[in-house]
Amino acid sequence: MLLMKNADAPTVVVKAIEGQSIYGGELHAKPMMKGDEMVFMEIHYAAGVGAPPHVHSHESMIYVVRGKVKTVVGDEEFILEPGDVCRHPAGVAHGVEAIEDSVMVEVKAPAPQMSSFFELAGEN
Q1: CA dihedral of residues 10, 59, 69, 35 (deg, nearest 10)
Q2: N or C, where is the chain less crowded by C-beta within 10 Å?
Q3: What residues pair up with 18 in beta bridges, in sequence order?
Q4: Which positions of the chain have pLDDT values less than 50?
Q5: What span, in angstroms and rounded, lies between the C-alpha atoms of 7 and 104?
Q6: Conformational region of residue 80, where left means phi above 0, alpha means psi within -120 to 50, and beta covers everything else
Q7: Residue 114: predicted pLDDT
Q8: What pTM value is reported for the model?
């Protein structure tokens, strides 16, 4: 795949990440494109929605498009606003919580299978 129009990308409701339940409401993700080595997603958080600390075998980078989020990486806490980017290294516990309604993009590498770390609403 070389192109994905945002309007054509399906939005999924994420119930849990790496077995850790989302809190504060629903997390909406749009897996936009998977390449050979990475995956690119758009993620929508309502204020107060968060992903508790969890660990991945891949690294990820998050970029805030709109809003304000708090991310914890290991023992460090960061407040991110539009234009800010943060790296979540592989094997390091991290979490994200929206302080305001927020949109961010996330790039994960190497490209994991979505089903390996997301539990979607409606799945058991």
Answers
A1: -30
A2: C
A3: none
A4: 123-124
A5: 16
A6: beta
A7: 61
A8: 0.89
